[in-house]
Write a structure and sequence with these properties.
By secondary structure, this protein is an alpha/beta fold. Helices cover 32% and strands 29% of the residues. The chain has eleven helices and eleven strands. The radius of gyration is 22 Å and the shape is elongated.
Length: 275
């Protein structure tokens, strides 16, 4: 079963919950960290890495001796990765989304492929946890292809925990769309509720089943819990603010090690979701 842990807002404790679930599985589990812009699951799980590979895109390079400056490639590219003015053509690989359209429309076959490295995919092991994450290259804006590469490593069977990126844009959708259940981690604040509503709207549009975990539930107000009840959204757990948890997080200690009594809470949640 694939369970994605997501949040409409950053800093809500998404990775804390995802790591807690992986540590509470009680057997083989795979952890896919799709928060490729800022992966931090490895800080808590401390995997021993045994493999890595670069993930890249095919982007065009123009053969100027063949180009007739017709502008068909420029007119097709919606991301302005190609410009033609007079008898000059320029390609901007960092803007290219690798759709391949310029190769198809060029009547002179004046494009050849080059590789643009997006980032690194790393695989490792932490006890019973099979670990995979992606690291986006600094300055790179295209996160989704790297997320797809991480998701392609998902095991065909067994429990897979997907640590999704924060927000509700394309990286979020790419990370959760194949999940069988999504746990939305939020907090009991106006900002948390605002972004939770957006995330819920996206998941409903995608037709994905989901529930909520409220982190630091005793800080803030009761509006988040009240709104979930009105919307018939299951609140699976409420985690109170605890100095031990905060200190453990700062030291890279998983939640279920800082508060061992919570391990059963997450273990029971996994049993409930997989039943």
């Amino acid at each position: 079963m694939k369970i994605a842990v997501a949040s409409g807002k950053g800093g809500t404790g998404k990775t804390t919950v995802a790591v807690a679930l992986a540590c509470s599985a009680g057997g083989p589990v795979q952890y896919l960290d799709c928060d490729v812009e800022e992966p931090n699951g490895h800080i808590f799980l401390r995997p021993v890495f045994h493999g890595s590979r670069e993930i890249s895109l095919a982007v065009p390079r123009v053969l100027e001796e063949k180009c007739t400056w017709c502008g068909k490639c420029r007119d097709l590219c919606r991301f302005n990765a190609i410009t033609v003015f007079g008898r000059t053509i320029m390609v901007f690989p960092d803007l290219c989304h690798a759709c391949g359209g310029c190769f198809l429309v060029c009547p002179e076959k004046a494009f050849v492929e080059e590789r643009r490295v997006l980032g690194l995919l790393e695989k490792g092991r932490s006890g019973e946890i099979d670990f995979v994450h992606g690291r986006l290259r600094v300055g790179e804006a295209m996160a989704v292809p790297l997320i797809h590469a991480v998701l392609e490593e998902a095991a065909a069977e067994g429990l897979v925990i997907i640590d999704a990126p924060p927000g509700t844009s394309c990286p979020f959708v790419a990370s959760v769309k194949e999940a069988e259940y999504v746990l939305l981690v939020t907090e009991a604040t106006p900002f948390g509720l605002h972004d939770l509503k957006i995330a819920v709207a996206v998941l409903r549009k995608l037709g994905l089943p989901f529930g909520v975990i409220i982190n630091r539930s005793d800080l803030g107000d009761v509006k988040t819990a009240s709104w979930c009840r009105r919307e018939n959204i299951t609140i699976h757990s409420e985690i109170p603010f605890d100095r031990k948890i905060a200190e453990g997080y700062a030291a890279g200690v998983p939640l279920v090690d800082s508060r061992p009594e919570l391990r059963q809470t997450f273990s029971s949640l996994l049993e409930e979701l997989q039943s």
